[in-house]
Amino acid sequence: MTPTLVRGSRTRADTRARDWAEIQERMLVPLYEAVYDRLDVGPTTRLLGLGCGSGLALLMASARGAAVTGCDPDERRLALARERLLPEPQWGAPARRRARAELRFGGPVRPADREGTPFTMVTALDPASPCDELRPDLTAAARLTERGSPVVLAGWGPSERCATFRVLCVAARLAEPRGHTVRSRLSGRDDLEELARDAGLRPDGSGRVACPFGYPDMDSAVRGLLSTGLFDPAAEATDQHQVEKELAEALHPYRRADGTVRMENVFRYVVARV
Predict the structure, then answer these.
(1) Where is the Methyltransferase type domain (predicted)?
(2) Residue 251 near residue 226, CB atoms below 8 Å
(3) pTM of the predicted model, to two decimals?
(4) What structural domains does the chain harbor?
């Protein structure tokens, strides 16, 4: 049976946010690049990123010339995004061009609260964000976006194509005894399309992208996966030490002779229209 996986309450939140930014977030770069290439993100793009995390996807869009707005419910990740996109000028250092960026805690603003031109693209590219939490944000984002503009949703591909899926099953198994729920976009064939339709959007194509998870050592692999928040309910149901121990054991088959850890994964994305 497919486990449901979700970001639960965080422990050691500051460390987790930094581990996400420095270890785990870069694993999704092939997904970001594929989406931006397909939709020709550039200087005319006004992008709204839902669940923008520590801002790597926004930074990549900004490097293409796009104006970016990001929102996220995690204040610590958002602070790291602010460091990347809106750094404070350093005294005596050469002036840097500031990105056309806005960052906001929580979800998208209501139309009455927002001034300026509407967005031309919306993305929700964090597969750890659960569908039931994302749905109202998608509906709100659609009201802020030009008619006909793309909205891109991403999730895990088929379980048989995602080596990390077997590792994530540890989180579901450990969380289950106390009734904790662990949910993420571990996608069935039409899950993303159904999410789009529920938000009033029209599906208009899809794609798959190889996103291998590669780490220099076992410690980095454990820290990176814990930073997703998907193991937090397991830690609440058992204890942190047990989760780390069983996670390392589940990763053992993917450890190479040189000590590196690598898991092959495929992610799926859907393009919908407002």
Answers:
(1) 48-88
(2) no
(3) 0.88
(4) 13-159+181-212+265-273 (3.40.50.150)
